[in-house]
Amino acid sequence: MVDMPNTPRVSLLVTDLDNTLWDWFEAWHSSFSAMLRRLSQLSEVPQRQLEREIQMVHRRRGTSEYSYLLNELPSLLRRNPHSQPLKVYDDAIHVLNRERLRSTKLYSGVLATLRELRRRKIPVVAYTESVAYWSEWRIRRTGLDGLIKVMYSSPDHDFPLGVSAHDLRTQPPDTYGLKVTTHKRVPPGILKPNTDVLKSILADFSVPPKGAVYVGDSLMKDVAMAQELGVYDVYAQYGASQDREGYDLLRRVSHWTQQDIERERELSAQPTITPSYVLSEGFSQLLSMFDFAEA
Ligand SMILES: [Mg+2]
To answer: What is the pTM of this model?
Structure first.
């Protein structure tokens, strides 16, 4: 065993998913902007008008990944009083799905790092605020089913009256769900940096705060939460997207409140949260920052 002075010994990794393990923003932006362009062409509703209506639906549904979005946009409903916009503008949804499939990928080094942690018998727990359905889809798509022991996600969004999650499914049943990773839902309304979920993860694995590492790309949510509990906090700086081209589109259409957006802007301009560890290059830097050893 190589002695690593100043390298904390830890036995549990808790990680955020979006923009920490994969580039969610890139996948979202490339697929959503392509869908929006196509939808605007097909419907002849200006993009800005669609954006305003989309933001209202997303806020009402509390997510920016809402499967029935098109069916609830007033401009589209007015133009199609006797048919469902989702059917009429089916081609825009194809564009969205195709682009999402193409652009959902792990950051380099993630797979190798998670495999190394599995070799060392270190449990990896994921904690995301994205909804259950899309979190499972991304875990399957990126091949992480099983490399993550437990995933905590938000529950799925509400469905329109008379529609169930089952009705959304168009593929055979075994193409859904996770085979190995256990999937748990966070109670609705619990959002990072609330520490309840992280606290219960530590309790489940009987690990004290200084026996665990938490990594994420949001200073305001991930780093603040880990610091409050005294878990080793790691900032996935490579995942920060706030200054990237297209982030304004996300601000314009997402379910975030104006207050969230302002706070994130302020923090990005003048960080008041200083992370203890920073991954400037990539996820695999974790392996040299900490001594991951079985408890
Ligand atoms: Mg994230």
So the answer is: 0.90
